[in-house]
Amino acid sequence: MDDAPATAEAAQPDAKVLAQIAEQLTQLLRLRTLPIGMKLFESLEEMEKIPGLRRPAKGKTFSTCQLVTQARIAGFTLGITHENVPAFSNCGGVIGLNEPSELYLSGRKMEGVWFQNREAAAAHQAQMPRVPAGRYNGLVVSPLRSARLDPPDICLFYANPAQMILFINGLQWKSYQRYDFSITGESACADSWGHALKTRKVSLSIPCYAERRYGNVTASSCKGCCMAISASRSPRSGRCWRTSRNTHRPPSSLRPSPSSSRSASASRSASLRRSGGTVGWMRQRGRCRWWASPPPPSGSPS
User: Fold this and answer.
1) How many distinct structural domains can be found in the chain?
2) pTM greater than 0.90
């Protein structure tokens, strides 16, 4: 994909291209879980045509973060409808499968839990990014490497802050844009895939308590951030990051050559020997280590 700014008219990459980009991104950033794609469906018949699609057992419900976890860790391709998430909750509300009930919108659900009073809890619900309800009836999540969503609406991956800033460096490499990311607080999925599905813009969030409890987002696996990005921007960002990474090296004049490093080491060893010091190799904990000791102070007994 070229370096023109992404627009609504930008050509969507096919699934095979995204699979290659996902593999390269995983290798370059050393991601610990799979990059995944998300796609909303108006028609359930079209959703059922996705190859390898798994559906929850009848009567079983999942939180959306559990759905995402099964795709990014186990590699499942999963499809859900409103019946597969808690009824009239934010799980379905954020992705546009339902309108949250009055229990949520009034603030009663989170009053005294995440907010001191109902007014604060209601304001939290009112300002939460959501895909408008009424248009979509199903959602599919699938690892990008499987190339089953052709193409997905958005791409999503989890990374630690060090990995994430490198990815953002790639987004800004040739066509700079300043990014503003929101923090809803609890229900952080609204800031990542909710905002991205609604606006098709780059989104970043800090996983909330629910994601850590139900979505297996832990400090040892993913240390803090998840990125959602329109599928049309993924190839460009991956290519630009590879280019920027190759240029983020010190100038050659500041990088010692192997021969100069060996010469400097030999010079230091010879200097120590001339002054009465000792150098050599020693075996420590099963490894050979180079050691050197300075000469004894002048006037000290030998």
Assistant:
1) 1
2) no
